[in-house]
Specification:
The chain is an all-alpha fold. The chain contains three helices and no strands. About 0% of the residues are buried.
């Protein structure tokens, strides 16, 4: 069975994989999307911190 990394590399070399990579790069360069990602990460961090405090 192929390792996970090998399977990811194989997917990245397909036309569908290349489209997904191009779209991810486009989203990463969009300031609005970047802010959305940062907001989501911060929300998860706050939830984890809250969960740790309540234990």
């Amino acid at each position: 069975m192929a390792s996970l990394f090998t399977r990811i590399v194989r997917l990245a070399n397909t036309p569908q994989g290349r489209r997904a990579i191009a779209q991810a790069k486009e989203f990463a360069n969009d300031p609005r999307r970047r802010q959305q990602a940062q907001d989501a990460v911060e929300k998860v961090r706050q939830q984890l911190a809250k969960r740790r405090r309540s234990q």
